[in-house]
Amino acid sequence: MKKIVRVSSDLRSNLVAYLDGELDEDASHNVEILLAQSEVARHDVEMLSRSFDLLDMLPQEKASENFTEQTMASIAAIESHIPLFHQRWFHWVRKGLVVLCWLGIMGAASFGGYVVGQQIWPTRTEQVLEELPLYENLHIYREMGDVELLRQLLQQNLSGPLQGEYPEEVAPTDEEGQE
């Protein structure tokens, strides 16, 4: 006993196209081979043929001459009354604007962080320039040996090595600078 195999939906659509005469020669030949080999396919073609015959018996209504115009006018009226936020393109524009806003916010935050970082945290060069008077007078500070003298100078508001001015007896000579 042979196993009954149902016809797939693709083959069934080919059978409908075969009955309507819409297939090319190769596809028609393949359907004819299928009909010769498969009893299920022949039965499906017979049922489809009967259905088409019954459809032909039904009275056919004719559309009025202005049916097309009325249909197109109603479609145009519906499309013109669609709210903006229900339009297809609005969805994509809204997503694009959200992405652009986020990119703008992130860019502004990055730029702000960079500027603030440059103002708050000094670079190594700025630190060295700020400490330059200390390095220039380091040999004098080492010769003093004690911090107490510097404190006394500050209390007396004397101009001295802390302000970059030297009394003549303490000022470094060219010989000391070369050592």
Return the average pLDDT rounded to an integer.
80
- Give the percentage of residues in beta strands: under 5%
Secondary-structure element order, N to C? HHHHHHHHHH
Question: What is the SS-derived class?
Answer: mainly alpha
Major beta-sheet overview = none
Q: Work out the helix count.
A: 10
Radius of gyration: 48 Å
Number of domains: 3
Query: What is the distance, rounded to the nearest whole angstrom, between the alpha carbons of the first and last residues?
Result: 117 Å
What is the general shape? elongated
The helix fraction, in percent, is 55-70%
What is the chains' assembly state?
single chain
Question: How many strands in all?
Answer: 0
Protein name: Zinc-finger domain-containing protein
Transmembrane segments: 97-117
Keywords: Membrane, Transmembrane, Transmembrane helix
Please give the structural blueprint.
Blueprint: H1 9-20, H2 25-37, H3 39-57, H4 67-80, H5 88-120, H6 124-130, H7 132-136, H8 138-144, H9 148-155, H10 174-178
